[in-house]
Amino acid sequence: MRHTHHHQDQHPQPPTPPAPAAAKPTQAALDQGAANFTPSPDEVARRAYFSYVNQGSRPGHEVQHWLKAETDILAERKLTRTHGFHNPT
Questions:
Q1: Number of structural domains found in the chain
Q2: What does the pLDDT average to over 31-45?
Q3: For residue 59, what is the DSSP state?
Q4: Containing H/E element for 74?
Q5: Model confidence over 63-86: pLDDT tens digits?
Q6: Structural contact between residues 65 and 54, judged by C-beta atoms closer than 8 angstroms
Q7: Cα separation of 66 and 51, whole Å?
Q8: Is residue 8 domain-resident?
Q9: 89 occurs within a structural domain
Q10: 44: burial class by Cβ within 10 Å (0-12, 13-18, 19+)?
Q11: Could you tell me if 74 and 39 are in contact, meaning their C-beta atoms sit under 8 angstroms apart?
Protein backbone atom coordinates (compact mmCIF):
# COMPACT_ATOMS: atom_id res chain seq x y z
CA MET A 1 0.00 0.00 0.00
CA ARG A 2 1.42 3.35 -0.99
CA HIS A 3 0.75 6.44 1.11
CA THR A 4 0.46 9.77 -0.56
CA HIS A 5 1.46 12.72 1.55
CA HIS A 6 0.01 16.08 0.70
CA HIS A 7 1.75 19.12 1.94
CA GLN A 8 -0.09 22.35 2.59
CA ASP A 9 2.14 24.26 0.20
CA GLN A 10 1.11 22.08 -2.75
CA HIS A 11 -2.22 23.89 -3.02
CA PRO A 12 -1.69 27.35 -1.66
CA GLN A 13 -4.76 29.39 -0.93
CA PRO A 14 -4.92 32.89 -2.40
CA PRO A 15 -4.21 35.55 0.19
CA THR A 16 -7.28 36.96 1.89
CA PRO A 17 -7.61 40.69 1.36
CA PRO A 18 -7.53 42.69 4.58
CA ALA A 19 -10.89 43.70 5.98
CA PRO A 20 -11.69 47.36 5.37
CA ALA A 21 -11.61 49.64 8.37
CA ALA A 22 -15.04 50.30 9.81
CA ALA A 23 -16.26 53.59 8.49
CA LYS A 24 -18.62 55.79 10.41
CA PRO A 25 -22.06 55.57 8.79
CA THR A 26 -23.25 58.58 6.85
CA GLN A 27 -26.48 60.34 7.71
CA ALA A 28 -28.08 58.92 4.55
CA ALA A 29 -27.20 55.39 5.67
CA LEU A 30 -28.61 56.08 9.12
CA ASP A 31 -31.81 57.47 7.62
CA GLN A 32 -32.20 54.42 5.38
CA GLY A 33 -31.55 52.08 8.31
CA ALA A 34 -34.10 53.96 10.37
CA ALA A 35 -36.69 53.59 7.63
CA ASN A 36 -36.06 49.85 7.31
CA PHE A 37 -36.67 48.35 10.72
CA THR A 38 -39.24 45.76 9.75
CA PRO A 39 -38.89 42.63 11.89
CA SER A 40 -37.91 39.39 10.22
CA PRO A 41 -40.49 36.60 9.95
CA ASP A 42 -38.40 34.57 12.42
CA GLU A 43 -38.60 37.33 15.03
CA VAL A 44 -42.35 37.65 14.62
CA ALA A 45 -42.84 33.88 14.69
CA ARG A 46 -40.88 33.58 17.95
CA ARG A 47 -42.86 36.36 19.59
CA ALA A 48 -46.18 34.97 18.30
CA TYR A 49 -45.31 31.52 19.61
CA PHE A 50 -44.58 32.85 23.09
CA SER A 51 -47.88 34.73 23.02
CA TYR A 52 -49.64 31.52 21.98
CA VAL A 53 -48.05 29.57 24.82
CA ASN A 54 -48.66 32.30 27.40
CA GLN A 55 -52.34 32.45 26.46
CA GLY A 56 -52.94 28.75 27.02
CA SER A 57 -51.93 27.27 23.66
CA ARG A 58 -55.45 27.50 22.29
CA PRO A 59 -55.69 26.85 18.54
CA GLY A 60 -57.48 29.19 16.16
CA HIS A 61 -55.82 32.50 17.04
CA GLU A 62 -52.67 32.26 14.96
CA VAL A 63 -53.34 35.41 12.93
CA GLN A 64 -54.09 37.46 16.04
CA HIS A 65 -50.88 36.25 17.72
CA TRP A 66 -48.87 37.06 14.59
CA LEU A 67 -50.31 40.56 14.18
CA LYS A 68 -49.91 41.38 17.86
CA ALA A 69 -46.30 40.15 17.82
CA GLU A 70 -45.51 42.22 14.75
CA THR A 71 -47.16 45.32 16.24
CA ASP A 72 -45.31 44.90 19.54
CA ILE A 73 -41.91 44.52 17.87
CA LEU A 74 -42.47 47.58 15.69
CA ALA A 75 -43.60 49.61 18.73
CA GLU A 76 -40.49 48.56 20.67
CA ARG A 77 -38.22 49.53 17.79
CA LYS A 78 -39.95 52.87 17.38
CA LEU A 79 -39.56 53.56 21.09
CA THR A 80 -35.90 52.56 20.96
CA ARG A 81 -35.25 54.80 17.95
CA THR A 82 -37.10 57.69 19.60
CA HIS A 83 -34.85 57.50 22.64
CA GLY A 84 -31.68 57.14 20.58
CA PHE A 85 -30.67 53.65 21.68
CA HIS A 86 -30.41 52.40 18.09
CA ASN A 87 -27.19 54.29 17.37
CA PRO A 88 -24.54 53.40 19.95
CA THR A 89 -21.53 55.70 19.93
A1: 1
A2: 77
A3: T
A4: helix 62-82
A5: 999 999 999 999 999 888 777 665
A6: no
A7: 9
A8: no
A9: no
A10: buried
A11: yes
